[in-house]
Design goal:
The complex is a heterodimer of chains A (433) and B (343). Chain A is 48% helix and 12% strand. By secondary structure, chain A is of the alpha+beta class. Chain A has two domains: 4-216, Fumarate Reductase Cytochrome B subunit, CATH 1.20.950.20; 241-432, Gcn5-related N-acetyltransferase (GNAT) (Aminopeptidase, 3-Layer(aba) Sandwich). In chain A, the strands form two sheets. In chain A, strands 4-5-6-7-8-10-9 form a seven-stranded mixed sheet, sandwiched between helices. In chain A, strand 1 and strand 2 (11-13) form a beta hairpin. In chain A, helix 4 (125-153) packs antiparallel against helix 5. The radius of gyration of chain A is 30 Å and the shape is elongated. With 343 residues, chain B is α+β, with helices and mostly antiparallel strands. Chain B has one domain (2-306): Alpha-Beta Plaits (2-Layer Sandwich). In chain B, the strands form four sheets. Chain B has a four-stranded mixed sheet. In chain B, strands 2-3 form a two-stranded antiparallel ribbon. In chain B, strands 4-5 form a two-stranded antiparallel ribbon. In chain B, strand 2 (117-125) and strand 3 form a beta hairpin. The termini of chain B are far apart. The chains are: A alpha+beta (433), B alpha+beta (343). The interface between A and B is large, with 48 and 59 residues.
Chain lengths: 433, 343
């Protein structure tokens, strides 16, 4: 797989040169085959097609056959090349998977705003189904076409049932090929699919589009081709540095983004209102899955947060901001004014969307909102969260100070103070020291 | 008449053909085993028949209203053409309806109701005047474009050598007539399968032409016209025997053959003491009245392209394997480089 993010250009490579060559070779020769095949019906004269400038030849069945033969050479060669090449290299991303049919229906519903679009791999489920469909059609056309060609040259008197089967298979697959072509054209007219169109011309698509619509593919790319530290580890990592058992808040980005780099996912940040309560809660409880088995057992519960607790946080003055793409809340982060400091509270990103830079975007945004020093608390065991904040310029405070701060600025149980850590931003340290 | 007198000794190789009918067709030549495919281009079935039309024998049946072959054919094919619907649907956006149902009696040309007819030619050759009669019908080409190019395979060449249109499948688009060098197939509009689909938009009836009495051949009987010929000017037999006989007769009369090379070879060999270009010049030609010119096989120059097409899958396979090999060898190098870079 040659897919990779082109740093600094905002583009992702989706198709290799070979794939573009295959696609256009098969597409263009396929169109020529479609038309010359159509002209093998006695319609060109009857329907005035022969009178269209440049199409006078369409009434000549022998000439149409020659062009048909000629076009079938790249068509057949590239189709077989495609199967052999990608088959042997194990590039099977377009082969339908279990559940594609159901998911396709969901996607189609989402086009009409009746469902939420699920996150995609490199290919959409209906793309995989369409691929299987067109592959069967092309295979049928090639096999029946070869039988017909053999008959034309060597064996006009071959078994009539065989000739009949080849002819009608060819005719039926011809109709299906035409319908598949129309469906293919219709699919790229659909608005959400349009950003993919450039890939088939240039090989590249926009990174922000890929991040928001094909996050699973991006995860594969980032795990594979681009070497990044494994950002979304859920393993309970014990980091010597924060063994100091201090504790307090529970705000922490559920394994949010390492490795988003400078490449940004498209979406917007907006403040959350009471209307978003359920969506915010959903993100928290999904993102908090990263804590399962990591934080002390007596601190874990499922769901991680009840609605009433969240409502309580709001009344306490926590202001929630959300990262939204395609109308879906993918991540949230709260900020709370607490006297002479601001607190970052409750930072979570949906498990499927972690590692894409959403946490970074939220954190950076919230920092711009506060003129005061910013403190953040998280579970001592959530090493990825600690690393996240450290990467964004926060530093762990000493164990003693942590206890003091948690008691001063947060209102949380003693047990939580024990199992938490606190980090402060640079202005906290600058001011305090 | 030599072939006829000798009679065939064996009919085993053609199930359905009785020994008796072979005796009648032509006599006594032993036929070796003829099953199998030779692999050469064109129709190569060894069990195929050919026909011989000896113009030195055909007298046009001067004592009859209708030549015996034409009469026998019409009798044999009585009821072959169903009655068309009335009215016959008009065609959109253009196209001519061809209705022969009110002209069934026409016998001086090919029509759906008249699958063979006799041309006459008054010619002068080497100082002598000849009045020749030429029975005309489908030539049953060795590699008939009319059949191979039929979009619905409603037209097919059988191993008997007969080229047969299935009237239940034919849409009457007349593509077969367009690609036939002699424009043999004749259309009757207002009948056939097209009526059940979109009669004004697609199709225009059913095409009819001689089928060499395929039904009779399967039963081991001669075609009706051959059976009826009082002059024994028409013969049928195994292809190579008929070819040998035609060559022998040509030698004897220092004459000419038509149909052996035409359109890549046909199952109908005309033998004549008068050259065919003279006959062609003398006969009345036009729709339903085919010429006697030399004709090349129109699809011949598609063969080389077609052969290339048949090899194309191998090219694709080979290219795919080669590309995989080159891709894997590149990938084999890359991780090494990367590892070094990381450390």
């Amino acid at each position: 797989m040659n897919d990779q993010i082109l740093k600094g250009t905002g583009l992702v490579r989706r198709h290799s040169i070979i794939e573009l060559f295959e696609h256009w070779g098969i597409a263009l020769s396929g169109l020529v085959l479609l038309f010359t095949g159509l002209f093998e019906l006695p319609i060109a004269k009857r329907y005035f097609i022969t009178e269209i400038p440049g199409l006078a030849w369409s009434g000549d069945f022998i000439l149409s056959l020659k062009i048909h033969y000629l076009a079938s050479i790249p068509f057949i060669a590239l189709s077989l090349f495609h199967v052999v090449y990608h088959g042997l290299l194990g590039e099977t991303g377009m082969i339908p998977r279990k559940g594609d049919f159901k998911e396709s229906i969901l996607v189609i519903k989402s086009l009409f705003g009746k469902a939420e679009e699920p996150p995609f791999h490199k290919y959409l489920p209906e793309q995989r189904l369409a691929y299987a469909g067109i592959a069967i059609i092309i295979a049928g056309l090639i096999i029946s076409g070869l039988v017909k060609t053999y008959k034309n040259i060597y064996a006009p008197d071959m078994s009539y049932p065989l000739v009949m089967a080849a002819t009608w298979a060819h005719n039926i697959f011809f109709v299906l090929f035409f319908l598949a072509f129309l469906a293919h054209m219709a699919a790229i007219v659909i608005k959400p699919n349009r950003p993919m169109v450039r890939a088939i011309f240039t090989g590249y698509i926009r990174l922000d589009y890929a991040r928001h619509r094909h996050p699973l593919w991006m995860q594969e790319i980032e795990k594979g081709c681009i070497h990044r530290p494994s950002g979304s580890s859920r393993k309970p990592v014990t980091d010597e540095r924060q063994r100091p058992e201090q504790e307090h808040p529970k705000a922490s980005p559920g394994s949010a983004s390492e490795g988003a780099g400078q490449d940004e996912i498209s979406g917007s940040i907006r403040i959350c209102t009471h209307d978003d309560l359920d969506a915010v809660l959903a993100v928290i409880n999904d993102g908090a899955q990263a804590y399962r088995g990591v934080i002390p057992e007596d601190r874990w519960k499922d769901p991680y947060m009840e609605k009433t607790e969240l409502e309580e946080e709001l009344t306490q003055g926590v202001e929630f901001w959300g990262f939204e793409a395609s109308g879906r809340l993918l991540g949230i982060m709260g900020i709370q004014d607490s006297g002479d400091v601001s607190l970052l509270r409750h930072a979570y990103v949906l498990t499927g969307m972690q590692g894409l830079g959403i946490g970074t975007r939220l954190a950076e945004h919230l920092e711009t909102l506060s003129r005061k020093p910013v403190l953040v608390g998280t579970w001592a065991d959530a090493s990825w969260a600690v690393r996240f904040y450290e990467k964004h310029g926060y530093t762990l405070v000493s164990p003693d100070e942590k206890d003091r701060l948690l008691r001063q600025y947060w209102s949380i149980p003693e047990r939580q103070i024990e199992t938490s850590v606190v980090l402060g931003d640079s202005s906290w340290f600058g001011k305090d020291r | 008449m030599a072939v006829h007198r000798r009679g065939y000794m064996s009919s085993k190789i053609r199930p359905g053909l009785s020994r008796r009918s072979f005796l009648k067709v032509a006599g006594g030549i032993a036929i070796g085993s003829r099953i199998g495919i030779t692999g050469q281009a064109h129709a190569r079935s060894d069990s195929a028949y050919a026909t011989l039309i000896d113009l030195s024998l055909c007298d046009g049946c001067p004592d009859r209203d209708t030549p015996a072959c034409v009469a026998a054919c019409r009798l044999e094919k009585t009821g072959n053409v169903p009655d068309p619907v009335d009215p016959i649907p008009e065609l959109f956006p253009r196209g001519m309806i061809e209705d022969w149902s009110s002209k069934k009696e026409v016998r001086n040309r090919l029509t759906p109701y008249n699958l063979t007819f006799v041309q006459t030619a008054e010619v002068e050759h080497q100082g002598r005047n000849y009045s020749l009669h030429i029975p005309r019908r489908c030539m049953h080409c060795d590699n008939p474009a009319c059949a191979t190019i039929c979009p619905f395979s409603a037209n097919h060449k059988y191993q008997t050598g007969a080229v047969v249109i299935d009237k239940d499948l034919c849409f009457g688009g007349a593509k077969c007539r367009t690609v036939c060098p002699w424009a043999i197939p004749q259309r009757q509009s207002g009948i056939g399968i097209y009526l059940h689909l979109a009669p004004t938009l697609a199709g225009n009836g059913v095409m009819f032409k001689c089928d060499l009495c395929q039904d009779r051949l399967i039963q081991g009987r001669e075609p009706a016209c051959i059976e009826a010929c009082p002059q024994k000017a028409l013969l049928i037999g195994p292809k190579d025997e008929i070819h040998a006989e035609a060559h022998a007769r040509r030698e004897r009369m220092n004459g000419y053959i038509y149909g052996e090379q035409e359109n890549g070879g046909t199952a109908t060999l005309y033998v004549s003491g008068v050259p065919f270009d003279k006959l062609n010049a003398a006969i009345e030609k036009g729709p339903g009245k085919p010429h006697l010119q030399e004709v090349q096989r129109s699809m011949a120059d598609t063969d080389s392209l077609g052969r290339t097409v048949l090899l194309t899958p191998l090219v694709g396979l080979a290219a795919g394997i080669a590309a995989v090999k080159s891709s894997l060898s590149k990938k084999g190098e890359e991780p090494k480089r990367r590892d070094k870079g990381d450390e």
